[in-house]
């Protein structure tokens, strides 16, 4: 089975991929952070492809422009994703391709496949302490915290680590995705992958079926963890298009219920609070943030410390 997104092809692994993947899999900044040893040679990569990666639901993450693999993504079962209606999502990508949004792009399609094609009810995803990049990917996708396990023994690396597990339920996935994507068949992933918004869309938001719905903004607000804030741009990115940040702001100003939908947890890209906070102005927004243990200094929140999905 093969999947395509805007920039990627996700296909089964082949032994001949070894030469292309070895330079990325041999990088000490890639494998160890995910819990596996670096590849030591092209032949070692070939052996791992043959014995580990050539299994159902594991895919080579390839650039559409040349078809060459730059990472891996897939679904598998383990001690906490062990039932027939659940999987764990795993992924990695070569360092030259970090920060380009390629893993979230691939993961959205694999999640769609898991829930729509395979009928899964729960998808778990984990990261180890210190792997901030992986945590941010999971937050951007909409996963929520599930549990933490200490004292995990990584035999390949002879290390003991703490692991954190996130969860995406089918219900949550449908809540996040249904207002954004009305696909025909298996195509039409533009709403989730993001695209160019018109001036009118950026100001008011397009119709729900075109990728924006005010109710979907309000629903996202209730998923922000206690003690965290988000920016307008992050909320827009979670909706599939960062260009809709202005429309998100306008939606927050018409929030029908400040208690149910906590828009006080939204700040601008500098971490600044809003003088136009709809339920009492900047001082009331500050009071509510302080009540959650979020520090506010000179009208700003430290996004490095309190930002969610940044």
N-to-C order of helices and strands? EEHHHEEEHEHEEHHHHEHHEHH
Summing up helix and strand content along with how strands pair, one would put the structural category as alpha+beta
Q: CATH first level of the largest domain: which class?
A: Alpha Beta
Shape: elongated
- What is the count of structural domains? 2
How far is it from the N-terminal to the C-terminal residue, by CA?
A: 33 Å
Count the helices. How many?
A: 13
CATH superfamily of the largest domain: Gcn5-related N-acetyltransferase (GNAT)
Main pleated-sheet profile = 8 strands, mixed
Which topology of the largest domain does CATH recognise? Aminopeptidase
For the CA atoms, what is the radius of gyration? 20 Å
Sheet-strand content, in percent, reads: 15-25%
Q: How does this model look, in words?
A:
The protein is α+β, with helices and mostly antiparallel strands and 310 residues long. 35% of the residues lie in helices and 20% in strands. The strands form two sheets. The protein has an eight-stranded mixed sheet with strand order 1-2-3-4-5-6-8-7, with helices on both faces. A two-stranded parallel sheet has the order 9-10. It is elongated, with a radius of gyration of 20 Å. The two termini are 33 Å apart. About 11% of the residues have low confidence.
Could you provide a short overview of the structure?
The chain is an alpha+beta fold and 310 residues long. The chain is built from 13 helices and ten strands. The longest helix has 16 residues.
């Amino acid at each position: 089975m093969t999947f395509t997104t805007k920039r990627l092809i996700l296909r089964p692994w082949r032994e001949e991929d070894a030469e292309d993947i070895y330079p990325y899999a041999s990088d000490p900044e890639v494998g160890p952070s995910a819990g596996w040893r670096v590849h030591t040679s092209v032949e070692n990569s070939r052996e791992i492809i043959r014995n580990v990666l050539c299994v159902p639901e594991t895919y080579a993450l390839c650039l559409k422009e040349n078809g060459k693999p730059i990472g891996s993504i897939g679904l598998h079962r383990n001690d906490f994703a062990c039932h027939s209606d659940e999987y764990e999502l795993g992924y990695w990508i070569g360092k030259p391709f970090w920060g380009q949004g390629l893993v979230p792009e691939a993961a959205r399609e694999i999640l769609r496949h898991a829930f729509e094609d395979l009928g899964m009810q729960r998808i778990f995803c984990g990261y180890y302490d210190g792997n901030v990049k992986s945590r941010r990917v999971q937050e951007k996708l909409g996963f929520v915290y599930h549990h933490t396990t200490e004292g995990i023994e990584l035999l390949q690396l002879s290390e003991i680590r703490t692991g954190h597990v996130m969860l995406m339920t089918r219900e949550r996935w449908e809540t996040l995705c249904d207002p954004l994507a009305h696909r025909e068949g298996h195509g039409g992933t533009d709403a989730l992958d993001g695209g160019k918004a018109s001036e009118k869309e950026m100001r008011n938001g397009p119709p729900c079926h075109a990728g924006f719905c005010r109710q979907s903004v309000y629903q996202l607000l209730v998923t922000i963890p206690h003690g965290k804030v988000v920016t307008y741009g992050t909320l827009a990115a979670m909706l599939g298009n960062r260009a809709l940040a202005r429309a998100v702001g306008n939606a927050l100003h018409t929030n029908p219920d400040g208690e149910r939908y906590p828009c006080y947890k939204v700040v601008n890209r500098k971490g600044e609070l809003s003088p136009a906070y709809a339920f009492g102005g900047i001082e009331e927004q500050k009071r509510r943030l302080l009540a959650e243990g979020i520090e506010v200094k000179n009208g700003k929140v430290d996004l490095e410390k309190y930002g969610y999905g940044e």
